[in-house]
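S.,

Sequence below, as promised.
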Amino acid sequence: MFYAGGVASALLGGIAATFVVGSASDRVGPWRVLSGLLVFGVVFMALIGLSGAAAGVLIATVLQAGFCMIGAHHLMTVLAATLYPTAMRATGTSWAVAIGRIGSIVGPLIGGTLIGWHWPLPVLFAAMAVFAVGAGIAALFLARANPMRKGQVGEA
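The prediction came back faster than expected:
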């Protein structure tokens, strides 16, 4: 029963992020929003493992992690288009999404293996958060390399 509630709360967080992330990006800039989502996403992912058996706390933490990580994923897809010249924008963005799909296939395999090795939940979720830290570091480098980093996504 909890698994359905946990997954649903992550997805509800992602739906809420869809409405909030776009307007926040317009106000403060997409790279700042992405950085904030990844930082807080790492925190909430690590807290999932520390939430214990309190279902309400766990569902609320998963909702917040879903908001941050799914919102960051949506924003990364939008920002990928700003990193490529117009002539190769569709191809570059498609490759970025395809590589992300590989991660969505391999991630559960690694997670299942770690669960099979009886990793404690706090360590398991902290290990997953490491990948979000890597995404945050990559985003910092991409923000510096992006000629539109001070501008908004829609500017040409």
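Helices lie at 2-28, 30-50, 55-80, 89-116, 121-145.

Coffee later?
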